[in-house]
Amino acid sequence: MKSRKTALCLAAFLVSLLVPVGEAGLAAPAAQKAPQTEAPKQEPAFWDTIDDVAAEQAKEKEELRKMKGELDDINQEIDSARDAMRNLNLNGGPNQPTGRQALPVQEIHLFARNQQVEVAPGIKSLALTYNNKIPGPTLHVMEGQPVKIVLHNESNLPTSLHLHGLQAPHAVDGLPRSGSADRQAERLLKPQDNFVYQFIAKEPGTYLYHPQVIHYDQRDRGLFGALIVHSRLQANDVKNEHELFIARLECQDAGKTKTTSVLTVNGKTAPGIPAIQVRSGERVRLRVFNMSEEDVPLHLSGHKLEVKGQSGADVMEPKLMRDTVTIPAKQRAEIEFVANNPGVWSLASENWSQISSNGKFPGGVAIVVRYKEY
Ligand SMILES: [Cu+2]
Asked: What is the pTM (predicted TM-score) of this model?
């Protein structure tokens, strides 16, 4: 019996030992919470560091992905620019893309005629004209457009046509081919004959047409006109445009036999040159063709002139702002100005000999620039 009692007591003892241990164990988390929050900050665990590195790498990967996207965009732009260039090159041969929207052929008829023109009241010149005017009509064509110019020689002289500045095929240049008298004869357009000049206007810019060097004297009698090739990529934002042809014409006074040379702009001498009308705020473009053999320092009062191009270097010139632009003999310039100073102004040569005619002022190159509100 005694031994069974001992055994029970032992069991009870063991249970009593277990119970406090159990209670203490259950109570432990609550008791330990407070000291844990106040513990000093520990170094980031190894796995946390790994996580940070992974995040960093993901960020870099994303940036690289974005950069690749940008590169793709740039490449796409280069590709489309290359396509656009290819489309512009109509003589592209095997590279010629199909399905391109072709520009229609621009057909122009020029009639060369002997004509008496009045450069000032009573002062007349036995001139030569294209389509009854000096200068001849301004020909506007698009970059890449096929052009067909039919020259009808209705004058009493053989003539020819040169497309000055344009890179047209030799066959339409109007120059005789070397070593062939027959060919030379072919290029001379006899009176009452006509000739078709066909070419593709490849480069945008300001050009002119006139007889070839063998008919040099005809240019000094009024045979010239502007050929403007408009860019297909750059929209023309200038609406007020003027072509000014400066030329010396041989003239005769009414009732006199003496001939004098008169400096003219578009076949008229000052003060008979029509005024250039401008509106406040607008940009005005002047394409000046100096057909004379003298440099002309052109000054516009009250404004600054911007040189946009000179003799074929169109829109490639740096921006130059001047109050006077000298147009060298036989050269041309594209000049622009902003009409920002309302009034009546003068666009004229700075040389006395070029703004007077036989000692009388005004004469020669002097043009009124008038704002519409004046
Ligand atoms: Cu020329």
From this structure: 0.71
